[in-house]
Amino acid sequence: MHIHFDTTTTYIQTNTQKKGKEEDKMASKKASFMVMIVVVMAISMESSVAIDLCGMTETELNECKPAVTKESPTSPSQLCCDALKHADLNCLCGYKHSPWLGSFGIDPELAVGLPTICGLANAPTC
């Protein structure tokens, strides 16, 4: 009888563990599905959603991109410098060590130097 109890207990634990794993898999699938829906929605709404990063619009960020590209950077345009005047520079500093900058061809050292090149008095030390 004692052996039967252990076997039953083991069987119950095994079924409970299997059920827990199945629930984990289902939760993971639901989370993946939700992420996929959000990505699809973001892509489909891309043209109607304006990007705003640290107080700079997508257009303003694009104005500064030639000055911070790894390959053949240029001097920042006046439009870029004007955009930096109202940007949250401390927020932009937060992206200095972000791995996504490199994927966009942006040199973080050039990026943190832009406020000084543009002659902004409030340029933070990143």
From TrEMBL:
SUPFAM superfamilies: Bifunctional inhibitor/lipid-transfer protein/seed storage 2S albumin (SSF47699)
Residue span(s) of domain Bifunctional inhibitor/plant lipid transfer protein/seed storage helical: 54-126
Signal peptide interval: none
InterPro entries according to UniProt: Bifun_inhib/LTP/seed_sf, Bifunc_inhib/LTP/seed_store, DIR1-like, NsLTP-like
Example GO biological process: systemic acquired resistance
Top-level taxonomic group: Eukaryota
GO molecular function: fatty acid binding
Pfam families reported for this sequence: LTP_2
Protein name, as recorded: Bifunctional inhibitor/plant lipid transfer protein/seed storage helical domain-containing protein
Organism of derivation: Eutrema salsugineum
